[in-house]
Amino acid sequence: MEEPQASPSHSDSEHYREMVRKLREIARQFRFRGARQELLKLALRYERRADQLDARSAPAISDQERD
Questions:
Q1: Going by C-beta distance under 8 Å and a sequence separation of 6 or more, which residues neighbour residue 35?
Q2: How far apart are CA 12 and CA 56, in angstroms?
Q3: 14, 17, 23, 24 alpha-carbon torsion, rounded to 10°
Q4: Which candidate, 20, 22, 2, 7, places its Cα nearest to that of 54?
Q5: Nearest-5° Cα angle at 10, 16 to 45
Q6: What is the DSSP secondary structure assignment for residue 16, as one 8-state letter?
Q7: Cβ 16 vs Cβ 50: under 8 Å
Q8: What percent of the chain has pLDDT over 90?
């Protein structure tokens, strides 16, 4: 099991966003509406997680810019 990182990086949120793009692409290929909806819901959760990581790292970035 992975240990949580002390401060999330921009690459963490980008990883989630890449997974979002892939999940949405896969969802477009599904014939079954239920499966497609599950993938789209998962993509939405990943997108929200990426947004949270970006928001968490934003103050740290602005603090560095002031120095």
A1: 27
A2: 11
A3: -140
A4: 7
A5: 25
A6: H
A7: yes
A8: 66
Give the residue carrying structure tokens 């998962």: 42
Mean pLDDT, rounded, of the chain: 84
User: Residue 57: which pLDDT band, with cuts at 50, 70 and 90?
Assistant: confident
3-state secondary structure of 31: coil
pLDDT at residue 9 tops 60: yes
Q: Considering the chain, what percentage of its residues have pLDDT values greater than 70?
A: 73
Q: How far apart are CA 52 and CA 1, in angstroms?
A: 22
Judge contact between 13 and 54, C-beta under 8 A: yes
Query: Within 1-67, where are the H helices?
Result: 10-29, 33-66
pLDDT for the residue numbered 56: 87
